[in-house]
Amino acid sequence: MPLEIACDESGSEGEKLIGGQTDVFAHAGVRLSLDEAAACLVELRRRIRSPAVEYKANHLLRTKHRRVLEWFLGPLGPVHGRAHVYLVDKKLLLANELRGLLGLDVSPDDELLAAFNDVLRTRNRRDPAAGSFFAMAGDTGELRAKVAELRDAKVLDPLVPAILRAVGRWSEDGESVFLVHDEQPSLRGERLTEIESSPGLAGLEFVDSRTDARVQVADFLVGVARRIAEDELNGNGDAVLTGLLAPYVDSKSLWN
């Protein structure tokens, strides 16, 4: 029997890595049975005591529920030792790609970095974004060809690499993995084929998170993980929460 892992993401904005709603992309995988996940949700409801029909990570992140959050992530919590989180600093991902292209280290607030994001997202060669980038980086045929190659490869969207890493992480001990993932309409065609052909993957099913308690637990974990990571990235980190999150963070995360 393959190992069933429930997954969800937070902070996915496709290839928009600068100027979006989030600075961090996070992807979580949770190894719980349906009964264990259902029991976790019942306990969260008992502790949070909100009248909301659907609970989300924001409930755990409220100041008044701090003790519940610490329990959830802590060593006595329901996911400790049974989950992993892959984090991506979006600007760092973009800066690494630009460094590989130009051989230059670029500040996260550099205008060239923002222009690079724009040019890789546009499909119109006459888009002003393209002109802005090439004006700053150097308008050569070789550079344009490299940019076109990167654009076609869709290297900026961290979702597929995150799912592939989840498969790799959970199959490290030789077990095959069946992923139950929250619905992702963007995963079609070649992107879906790449995932489905991943070594170690026994199968993949997309579900509505509201119908699978395991995915709901993954949603809780990935939501709080992204917020904790963003706070840390932006200089507002909470040492206790960052410490509690640390055991979950994948060693191959694109993270400082």
Automatic annotation (TrEMBL):
It comes from the Bacteria. Pfam families: DUF3800 (PF12686). This is NAD-dependent protein deacetylase of SIR2 family. It comes from Amycolatopsis umgeniensis.
